[in-house]
Amino acid sequence: MLHLKNVQAAYGQVTVIWDVSLHVGAGEIVSIIGSNGAGKTTLLKTISGVVGCKSGSITFQGEEIQKKEPHEIVDRGIVQVPEGRQIINEFTVRENLLMGCYRRHNELGQKGRDKLLSYVCDLFPILGDRMDQLAGTMSGGQQQMVAIARALMGQPKIMLTDEPSLGLAPMIVEQVCQVLVDLNKEGLTVLLVEQNALVALEMAKRAYVLEGGRVILEGAGVELLDNDKVREGYLGV
What we know:
The chain is of the alpha/beta class.
């Protein structure tokens, strides 16, 4: 479904991603783990078109997209849940969620938008109770639910999820991860960036280890859990 081949990305003259190649098959959960500064978030932003691809290719469903604008990439079904949630504090929960489908606002119509709202509220019932609450007044866990639900409002074919456990209590992390697993069982493809290596590898069918902007290891999630380098460097074992 998604293929990266020898991708390099930079901020100005500073290259951050070096010759990264990876693939995500339809229906998979694929994780990318690595320490702070490894380039994980930059890699997702490069796929989304927010950071320019300096060289290499990014192919989605057979089409090269590395030169597409971010809104064109969203239109093709690649939607990102950003690190730190990045909800609009001054908007209500409803308004934040509707931002997720703004590219198809007229196409969906009121009936279609309401159907999507009902769908995400079934996943996160608390959002249905807080529709008119300002999103900035919610807890961190609730805001993460808003961020994931907002992405789902865009009806993604693949969801790029950046650090969903960041700053959350363990119980909320478990709930959020279970939603991602359930969505995957329904057919949603997920590319997960996560500093919590244990969570990421337990969820993933396959995973990549990013270090210094380069892929240094790849394999099945369960295999990497038993890898000595991963256990020592990322699992604290």
